[in-house]
Every structure is written in C-alpha cells, then in structure tokens.
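Memo to structure team: turn this sequence into structure tokens by end of day. - J.P.
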Amino acid sequence: MQVRILADRGVRRALARADTLADQGRWEEAVRFLTAENRRLRDRRLERRVLELRFEAADHATQPPEPPPWPDTVPDLFPGAVIPEVRRDRLTTDVLRSAIVNHGTLLVRGLLDQRQSSRLSEDIDRTFASFDATRDGGQAPADLAGWFERCERDTRGDRPGKRDRGAVQAVDSPPALFDLIEVLDDARLRPLLSDYFGEPPFLLARKVTLRRVERTANTGGWHQDGAFMGPRIRSLNVWIALTRCGDEAPGIDVVGRRLDHIVTSEGSFAAWGVNHEDAVAVADGTIVRPVFDPGDALLFDQLCLHRTAVDPDMGNDRHAIEAWFLGPSTYGAMVETVEEGYQPRDQLPFLY
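Reply from structure team:
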C-alpha cells in the first residue's frame, strides 16, 4: 500500500511539473520530461498526458516560410534493384533517399529485434482485447484498463469498422503508442528522419495504426496514400512486420518502381483506389510480395502503390504497425490539393 501511495504521489508531481512546462510554452521539454517519468513509473495518466502534450506541441509549432531544400534527383545506390534492401546497420539518410527517389521503397531487415517485435505484438493483442471488452459499453478487466481509450482529438472515424478490418489507431491506445515511440527511438529513427526531412518530423494521428490482419481477410485494394493526403506532402511510412508474413501470413504487395504521379482508375473499390488492371499496367512487371521476418520494415512515401496481400494458402494471422511521418512544413500542401480534385482529410499531426 505504501509503495502504491508513493507511486501515486510521483505521478501527480510529474503531471504538475509537465503542466507548468506547458504553461510556459515549453511543450517539447514537457514531452521529454513526462516520457522519462513514464519510463520509471508506467502509469496510464502519464501516457495520456504525454500524448496530449505531443498534440499541443504540434499545435504551437512555428513553421519556416519555405520547406527545407528537397533534391529531385540523387545517385542510385541500388542499380537494377526492384525493392532495394539493407540491414539496419547500413541504414543512412543517403541510402534511404536514394532508394525512395529512384525505386519508391526501401526494405530494412532487422529494424527491430525479436524482443521489440514481441513487445509491440503483445501490445496489439492487449489493445484489441481492450477494444473488444469495451465495444458495447462494457468495462475492460483491470489488466487491460486504458489499453483502448478513444482519442479525444479524433472525433471522427468508424472505430468498430476499422477494428473489424483488423486495425486500431495507435492514438487510441496511449500505452501502445508510448511503447512504439520508445522502440522507434531505440532503432535510432529520430535522427535519421530529421535528417531525411530536413526538420524534426511529426506523426499523423490517423495514419499510425496497429494491425492484426486475419489469414482469412480480403486482399486490400491497390492505393497510394497520396491520393487522399495530397501528392506534394513530404511523408514516409515505416511499415513494420511483427510476425513473419508475406508467405505464411498476409503481407503487402508493392509496385517496385518509382511513380511520380497519382494513378487514377475507374471502377475501383474507392475514389482514391486503383483497380488491379491499372496497377498491373503501371507496375510494368515490378509487382513484388516481400517476405518479412519479425522486425523487418518497408519504408515508402505517399506515391508508392501497394495493397494488403492475402492468399488462401496462408495459415497464420499477421501483426504489423504502420507509422506515417511527415515534414511538418509541408502539411499545408494537403489543403492546397482541394483545388486539384483531392479531398485531403485532417490527419491530426502530433510531435514525434
């Protein structure tokens, strides 16, 4: 009992200190402070508050008048490759940029280790179980309390529909999101992405997703995320397999060539989708279904044409996470695309 009382006092002191920093306009410092405190105390109150502070930091961020310089062409370090591939220890900004600009994707083997992959996979199971327990107004058991809490910032969206398709937004699970950011930091993504974008990146609340796709799921439709995010935003998706997939569990089909435009298509599953015949035509023989081990990651931007890959012979379900980052100075480019026929959604950026 005494230990619990002392821990509760520690949480309340940490929250008060974080609020003081936020009141002083020191939101990023508040995020760093509360993150360190939560590593020590692991408390749902801290995890909820640090997420809100990430939103507040993004709300108050000052953007430069022009986005940082962005090269149109870079040397091809992977001549002849369809899906360039490197190990984590060879992942650099030059490697990443070369792969994306010249080939559209980069497969990083071993971005996470087995322990990290298992940790996030378990987080997904807890989140889904908490969602299911509270779906019809029920209450989650004590060990799952707080693993699903609808993010107050996101008042839209069909949560049950997404859950039925094997997806829950990470912002609806503060402890899972906290673990994800910790793991990405351990993988040293923060300096890599800051260098890649030329500015500290933001995450997109509606595009950081915990996925548990059943082996009996329908194959997803071909699409480019730029079809609704806008083609001029600077983005990067870090799609991480947490279980072996692509052969024995649903994976991802990818057009393994760089596209410089949004592909339009008639008769697709959605206004922003691409039908299979058009995907095959634009791929020009480069459709690839990579096989992932736990911890492998596929990196791509908003122009990559891809879909969920399901086959009747697959016998296992797949756990994965996708995390969309963007250069915050280009977020306004979404709004500009309305005049071009795009219908961008508010992706609710928050501080990484």
